[in-house]
Amino acid sequence: MARNRPSRRLLAGPLAYHWRTGHRHELVEDQEGHARHDDCREVLTLRQAGAPGRLVIVFHRGPGRLVSDGWLHAGAVMRASDHAYLNLHRPKVVRALLDEALERGHDFTAPGTVEVDGWGLFDGVLGRLHPSEG
Q1: Where does the source fall among the domains of life (predicted)?
Q2: In the predicted structure, residue 37 carries a pLDDT above the cut 50
C-alpha cells in the first residue's frame, strides 16, 4: 500500500517544483510460498507548479546498481563499480536531477506522465554536484 506523503518544494529560478521520493517493489511468492520483495526501485517524482506534466525518475536495482533495500538507507542509489552514490532526499541532488532532465529536453508543460531511467541521468548528475554532495 502506498503512503501519501506530502511533497517538498524546490525553487529553481522563477519556477517552483514539487517533489517526493519513494521506494517501490513487487511482493511475490517464491517456490516455497514465502513472500519476498522483487524489482526494488527508488522513485523521484517531480511536478512544476501550475504545469500539467509529471516526471518520474526511476532507479531500478540490477547488476552493479544498488538501491535502498535494507542495506542502504531510504533514498540511496549507488553504482557498485565505483561506489558513486546519490541521496534522493537531498534537495541539491533533486535539483541536479531536475536540471539534467531539463537539459535533455523534458517539458513539464506537456500533459501526462513521463517515466525515465534514472541511471541514464546518473553521470550527468554526478558532474553537476561537488563530490561531497551526492
Answers
A1: Bacteria
A2: yes
- pLDDT confidence of residue 1: 41
Q: How confident is the model at residue 70 (pLDDT cuts 50, 70, 90)?
A: low
Question: Residue 4 domain-assigned?
Answer: no
Query: Which residue type sits at 21?
Result: T
Torsion angle in degrees (nearest 10) through CA of 119, 72, 69, 78: 10
Describe the crossing of helices 119-128 and 91-103 by its angle, rounded to 10 degrees.
Answer: 110
Residue 56 amino acid letter: V
| Continuous segment of H or E residues that includes residue 36 | strand 35-48
Whether this prediction's pTM lies above 0.90 is answered by: no
- List the domain range (segments joined by +) for residue 86: 9-128
